[in-house]
Design brief:
The protein is of the alpha+beta class. The chain contains 5 helices and 8 strands, in the order ααααββαββββββ. The protein has a 4-stranded antiparallel β-sheet. Strands 1-4 form a two-stranded antiparallel ribbon. A two-stranded antiparallel ribbon has the order 2-3. The protein is elongated, with a radius of gyration of 26 Å. The termini are far apart.
């Protein structure tokens, strides 16, 4: 092989290696009509969902006005009111989300649009009342527009529980709940 052909051969070999590496990284493609590609990346396939036979959850009744005694410029009052409204349940909440806390939630957030998912409602005709027993600020930011709280509460049905809330200050000075989770986020106690 002459030295004038060496760059050409080297270029072809490098191109073939790059193409082979790309195929290894990208993997084989799927056709659009391939049934396996329809459920790829989905946690449960349609057959899995049917096997679970979970009953659909409907949105609860429209919320009433917020408690007029709540000072929306105080994030601790909003957090307390949200937990009491969202986690106090009635027997009629079965199969629905509890939307009584949505007046305390920021617009376009899951707590506002969906409400609180009712996992174990009380028996028909009974109620379970949430009472806040502790409130601890866990995080804040320098501009004081977001704060994170752990809210400890008791319910007459499930006992002691905690929720982690993110409150966001709105442009008008009100604090509203933007996030609600039962688990501490990274770096939290």
């Amino acid at each position: 092989m002459s030295t004038t052909r060496m760059p050409l051969v080297l270029g072809v070999v490098v191109t073939a290696l790059l193409a082979g590496g790309w195929l290894l990284l990208a993997g084989p493609g799927h056709r659009a009509d391939d049934p396996a590609s329809a459920t790829e990346g989905v946690a449960l396939s349609p057959a899995d969902r049917d096997a679970l036979a979970a009953a659909p959850v409907d949105a609860g009744t429209a919320p009433t006005d917020p408690d007029p005694a709540v000072d929306f410029t105080d994030p601790t009052e909003v957090a307390r009111a949200y937990v009491v409204a969202g986690y106090s349940l009635t027997g009629a909440d079965a199969g629905h989300t509890n939307r009584r806390a949505t007046p305390y939630a920021a617009p376009n957030t899951p707590p506002h649009t969906v409400g609180v998912l009712v996992v174990t409602p009380p028996a028909p005709g009974e109620t379970s009342t949430a009472t806040v027993t502790g409130l601890t600020q866990l995080a804040g930011e320098p501009t004081d527009t977001r704060r994170g709280y752990r809210v400890d509460y008791l319910t007459t049905q499930a006992g002691a529980q905690s929720r982690y809330l993110v409150l966001a200050r709105q442009f008008d000075g009100r604090w509203l709940v933007a996030g609600d989770t039962p688990d501490a986020q990274f770096g939290e106690p």
